[in-house]
Design goal:
InterPro entries: Ergot_Alk_Oxidoreductase, NAD(P)-bd_dom, NAD(P)-bd_dom_sf. It comes from Mucilaginibacter xinganensis. Pfam families: NAD_binding_10. The chain is of the alpha/beta class. The chain folds into 2 domains: about 160 residues, NAD(P)-binding Rossmann-like Domain (Rossmann fold, 3-Layer(aba) Sandwich), CATH 3.40.50; about 140 residues, UDP-galactose 4-epimerase, domain 1, CATH 3.90.25.10. Helix content is about 40%, strand content about 20%. Helix 1 crosses helix 7. The longest helix has 19 residues. The termini are far apart.
Length: about 300
């Protein structure tokens, strides 16, 4: 099969490309970074360098493809995340319709259909002649990398959360080893390894269900504090806690971190839905098969990176 993989050589797309190549498929990887071409070709894939913002480029790349894996990279500089996601989804849909690709696997998220205005999955409903699968993975293990500085006690939640408000900065100075968000604490959630997502996408690309289907993907379920303890133990901080903030505190912190207002509201809304338990409820309702990679496995990789910095 000729398969198009978007997402350059990211956490999902790189292992996905390796899986597909190992099974004898012809793979073209789309990347906006010309510097990735050599690495893509070294894997045995074809590099297509261009932007998913360009419909003509997408249509040219999709021509003759048997299947396409379509993902939209998040942009934290876009003032209106919803408008950006919908615009990119429409680009994909237009190019897929022009080229009559019959099998499409779309990356979404497990909260996408629960946050008002954030679900762009309906854009692909226009592809009435194609078999579409929407992937809804849970919380990525790799999101913990965004909290590495905060775990060290430097007062950051990835690149988004400023903590100089509501006494939290004073708390952080007294007590290092914290994770923070407007979901956390003893909230139960599902985490997922990008490797397990790649396995699931590879499996879906070779299937051809009728119409549109939805597949949830997860690796392990636990409370946020249990996850914090696993990560903390791996880096020598077994007391690591995941502090639950209010929506108001989280929104204030994001705004102080200069995150655009609409984007900040979207990020808070996504975490609020996770805190409500609705994402977990939908996940359980779908009864997905859990992946193989456990958080303890990822924690070893996280600790290795943590110690190098």
């Amino acid at each position: 099969m000729k398969i198009i993989v978007t997402g350059s050589l990211g956490n999902i797309s790189k292992p996905l490309t390796k899986i597909l190549l190992s099974r004898g498929h012809a793979v073209t990887v789309i990347s906006s970074d010309p510097k990735k071409q050599t690495e893509i070709e070294a894997l045995g894939a074809t590099a297509a360098i261009g932007s998913i913002a360009a419909v003509d480029f997408l249509a040219e790349t999709f021509t003759g493809a048997d299947a396409v894996y379509a993902m939209i990279p998040l942009s934290y500089t876009e003032p209106d995340l919803t408008a950006y996601l919908r615009r990119m989804a429409q680009n994909y849909a237009q190019a897929l319709k022009q080229t009559a690709v019959k099998r499409v696997v779309v990356m979404s998220g497990w909260a996408a259909n629960l946050v008002q205005g954030e679900n762009v999955e309906d854009v692909f409903d226009t592809l009435t002649d194609a078999s579409i699968t929407i992937m809804r993975p849970a919380s990525f293990y790799t999101n913990f990398y965004q909290s590495m500085d905060l775990i060290r006690g430097k007062g950051l939640m990835g690149k988004f959360l400023a903590l100089r408000y509501s006494g939290l900065w004073a708390l952080l100075k007294r007590k290092t080893g914290l994770l923070m968000g407007n979901y956390g604490g003893d909230d139960r959630t599902v985490f997922v390894s990008p490797l397990d997502i790649a396995d699931a996408v590879a499996e879906e690309l070779l299937l051809k269900p009728d119409g549109k289907t939805i597949r949830y993907v997860g690796s392990e379920e636990m409370t946020c504090n249990e996850a914090a303890r696993i990560i903390g133990t791996a880096v020598g901080k077994p007391w690591l806690k995941w502090v639950l903030l209010s929506d108001k505190q989280m929104l204030q912190g994001l705004k102080m971190a200069k995150v655009p207002e609409k984007l900040a509201e979207t990020l808070v809304a996504i975490q609020a839905v996770m805190h409500s338990g609705k994402t977990l409820e939908n996940f359980h309702r779908s009864q997905p098969k859990m992946g193989k990679v456990k958080l303890a496995d990822f924690a070893k990789e996280f600790a290795a990176v943590y110690r190098k910095k």
